[in-house]
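Extended Data, record Gamma-glutamyltransferase
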Amino acid sequence: MTTDVAVAAPSEAAADAGEQIARAGGNAVDAAVAAALVTMVNEVGIVSPSSGGFVTVQPGDGSAPQTVDGWMDMPGRAAPAEALRTGTWDVDTAYGGGVTVTVGPGSVATHGSIAALGEAQGRWGRLPWAELVQPAIDVARSGFRLSAASRYYLEYVHASIFGWDPASHAVVHDPDGEITTAPIVVPDLAASLEVVAMEGPRAMHEGDLARAISADVLDRGGILGPDDLAAYRPVVRPALVARLGDWTFGTNPPPAVGGVCVAAMLRLLDGHPRAPLAELRWSEADVAHLVRVQRAVLSARLDRLEVTDDLAAEAALLLAEVDARGIAALESGSTAHVSATGSDGTACAVTVSSGYSSGMIAAGTGIYLNNCLGEQELNPRGLHGLAPGTRLLSNMAPTVGRHTDGTTLAIGSPGADRITTAIVQALAGFVNGGLGLQAAVNHPRVHVHRAGRPTEEVKVETEPSMYFGGVAATLRRPDGHLVAAADPRRDGAVRLVHHDR
């Protein structure tokens, strides 16, 4: 049985991979996995095979949505005490409104995104795993040019983060030390992906490839050991449910914080925007309500979700307060995403990230390593402050939806703390504002930066900016009609695959 598939991805190459797999008989999950694997090759500085991520799936049979957690674990099972809080240094950058990033070997966490992709594909996909990895191998072998998102980020950090490791410096710089404009072939990367294709997702955790990654991290002063990689497992959880009108959405549950924020914001939208957005502009009252919702939820995240010892319990309490008392309950004084839906009703949303990157390529592998221990805004307990094996926090919120009429949707975005606000605004425009899917994605956005803090700033998008995220969304209507929308703020691309019957 063939399935028509809609794909929205961050690049033409990733969208091509989704289309290739769909034409080969794959479903929405297969297509999304293949597209996400390509992003791990050609989105340099944003995502790599050393990444964490989440996959949220709405099964085509209408059963409850599920999320596969492949986010980062805290490593260091075998690390001596003297190795903790070493092997890193801080970089101050103006990227994302100003952020301090911790990089170096000691910032590398235990990756899990490929394990999550494998788990999702094994449960809900159709095609052999190796076939899904092949498009990424092809891109790695033939080469690629830096995407607009990669170049935008590298303009801030190409010397400070991507220049200290000789292998990394050679990849992203030309002979004059400027960001390269030539096609890039990362040495050894295609060979590493061939191992992943042949041996399966566990190759990133056990075997020669995994040992090469951990050995280089340990040799350079980090704490990611072979025991950390071998012990890693993806976790499948019921998605966190939020309802908006006739829609039921499933998003990323704890221990991530992104899905909780999306669920809370959706519950507090209170029907805004009130009127159809015929002129593609929210009213002043709608924008004011949206800012109030963002401020309340993002402040609660900073004050409650990021500091609690029991995130699941605190998230449940916060959502219960929202349901009982509305917005008054909360008021007091780098990433890639792929969405795919199929004519069989399956929807799949995949968000993956390597943080800001540690700046190093694991010797002999071609794999850029993450710096997720060094994302200071997601590590309130400090660089190595968690027990080994503990999942880190995440902003990610890959989301699927199902309407009472059977329509299904997949949506998500990159963008650090703008992930949740970008997703909610696109959904609000589509569900409440009467916009088409692409128009809802295109609509100007607002974001409350550093909500509830003395340095809070309400940022209003006056012209399209990558700062406000990069939403990718796909939709399947009850009659099987497919729609895909990619964000013009990034090099997004869409594909609609229809099979002759």
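Summary. The chain has a mean pLDDT of 91.
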